[in-house]
Amino acid sequence: MSREICIYQEFLTDAHRAAIRSAADQAGLIPHFFTLDQFEEARECLQHCEVLYAHSVKLLRAAPASLKWYCCSFAGVDPYCKDPSVFANPDCMLTNSNGYGVTIAEHVVMVTLMLLRRMPEYEAVVRDRKWTNQLPIRSIRDNEFTLLGTGNIGSNVAERLRGMGAAKITGLSRSGQAVSGFDAVYPISRLDEILPSAKILIMSLPGTAETVHILDRARIALLPRDAYVINVGRGTAIEQMPLIEALNEGRLAGAALDVMDPEPLPPDHPLWSAKNLILTPHVSGNMTLGYTCDVNVEMFCADLLRYGQGKLPQNLVDRTRGY
Amino acid sequence: MSREICIYQEFLTDAHRAAIRSAADQAGLIPHFFTLDQFEEARECLQHCEVLYAHSVKLLRAAPASLKWYCCSFAGVDPYCKDPSVFANPDCMLTNSNGYGVTIAEHVVMVTLMLLRRMPEYEAVVRDRKWTNQLPIRSIRDNEFTLLGTGNIGSNVAERLRGMGAAKITGLSRSGQAVSGFDAVYPISRLDEILPSAKILIMSLPGTAETVHILDRARIALLPRDAYVINVGRGTAIEQMPLIEALNEGRLAGAALDVMDPEPLPPDHPLWSAKNLILTPHVSGNMTLGYTCDVNVEMFCADLLRYGQGKLPQNLVDRTRGY
After folding, report:
1. Do A113 and B106 touch (CB under 8 A)?
2. How many angstroms separate the CA atoms of B284 and B34, rounded?
3. Which CA distances in Å does B215 have to A37, B78, B136, B203, B270?
4. Which of A199, A272, A303, B177 is the most buried (most CB within 10 A)?
5. In this predicted model, what pLDDT tens digit does every residue of B99-108 receive, in sequence order?
6. Chain B partners of A134 at a C-beta cutoff of 8 Å?
7. pLDDT band for position A75 (50/70/90)?
8. Are the C-beta atoms of A240 and A271 separated by less than 8 Å?
9. pTM to 2 decimals?
10. Shortest CB distance from A164 goes to which of B106, B136, B286?
């Protein structure tokens, strides 16, 4: 019996397909490619595949118990970890794709500058076809940043902030282990001690049981009045009502959220109208960017080769830990 | 008779005043400080001063013929060069202040990312409290940039783009002389040859007779359909009507203008409603930023010392050339 891979992906170029074919061939597997409009065809093919490369809970639920490896082409795998019933095979390996660091870091630099340079206020003036005097602004140069999450995204953000002259970059991670590009990294257990001096808090945490409401009402109250909060990880990491209150009452200078809870946000949600808030509809990690897709396909191909050699994939997710 | 300096400035801190006092003392001059609400007091004092540090055409017009040096705390000195009648003393030295490079470069990085990441479109969706799929975006990493103007602003922009992984940075300047940080610099005379391959055109030219409508209708038509135009120099550098037409008809991907002609823009001007255009009310070079003010004061103090020694100031502007 032939060993097969079901690939259900948008944005793959001919070069990506060729790279996957070559790696699959070396691993002794046959790839089958489907675009997002071919769900039924993909589901049917999947029944005799041992590997699935996709980002679809629905398709994964349709997989047979013989599926050995699900490679998710997104970075955030919380939908696959929270509910084990999505896997018919409880021992199915789960890997993720971390090519998003660069594009998410560019998003973070953009919204950081938009907040520091008061763009929400200038944009409101311009929409009214009015002019204004210069507002007091701040810069990345000589400024201090606190990064909650020091993984692929955090490291790419730190590198870019440093390149623009940031004075101090502090990281916070589960382990508190030193990471290149950071002036210091502390364990998240010291968060309460660090928040009162955080000027710009950049959050890029995975969605796990431990990160839900990690920035809750009490911690939002610890932030200085001139602090900015940026979140590109998971919306559940922030307790939203106290954040909205702090923004509307001027107890925080501003925020930029690319992720929120729930998504999409309902039309009557108070986040839409919060003051000095930049909202984007979960678009910071964009697969349309050639570079991101290139990296994700490279990661999948490298793990395919390891899989063919009987080795564990490098991007293996601990399904109980959630990342 | 004592030799005196009139200083008419906002945003000066005690440290700035102390630095100016010290430099003035070494140069054998006595400084008098006025804030912007003390115009009459400043004008009266100015009558017996030989140096003026300000950014006010009105105050300069009130200066005596004995004024020897006007230091403008802004970078753009076109108002002082276009109309020689603003100087009662035709031989009065004019210097400018170039501390704006960092803050303007941060503005350029911000609007570049906003254009590449389709923020005008996402912001319109969010204002309607709607959600959207990801739009195809582009990144600074691996991208190519054409900088029209390779001075203090252009160099600071190039440094930041490089730090974010730009693949190619081409400069264009009057001389075409090599500048560190650029892959190549060409003379502006080769502009027509370079525009058809310009992906992101960043303009930071001074306002002189030569730069008026340097990006005119014919040159706008040379740009590729997916090009972006960013202008932080002078509004007069772009012929605005054909730019608006190109944006509205989709012959350009987008633009970001911090400068326009005239300023403030009248309420019925077609720029306000042009497609994929980010307008800001001439705020990229912001004196409220401590760093900018620090550099500007340092430049003035260094030139004060030179002035005391009978040397020409380092930031001397050629009033006929205009920069």
Report:
1. yes
2. 25
3. 44, 18, 28, 9, 18
4. A303
5. 889 999 999 9
6. 283, 286-288
7. confident
8. yes
9. 0.90
10. B106
